[in-house]
């Protein structure tokens, strides 16, 4: 029974650390690791879901 109580205890103890990391990110505006400005690929130009037979040939 003690073994199975370790999971909820670990979740309970890790929640303040997670919230602290999120709060620190909002307060101190650190440098971005991933900016998401990579939307120049073909997938971002298509509608979702893509229509059938969208291409006559493979894109290069």
UniProtKB/TrEMBL annotation:
SUPFAM superfamilies: Cytochrome c oxidase subunit I-like. Keywords: Membrane, Mitochondrion, Transmembrane, Transmembrane helix. InterPro entries: Cyt_c_oxase-like_su1_sf (IPR036927). The chain crosses the membrane at residues 6-28. It comes from the Eukaryota. This is Cytochrome oxidase subunit I. It comes from Ceratosolen bisulcatus. The lineage of its organism: Eukaryota, Metazoa, Ecdysozoa, Arthropoda, Hexapoda.
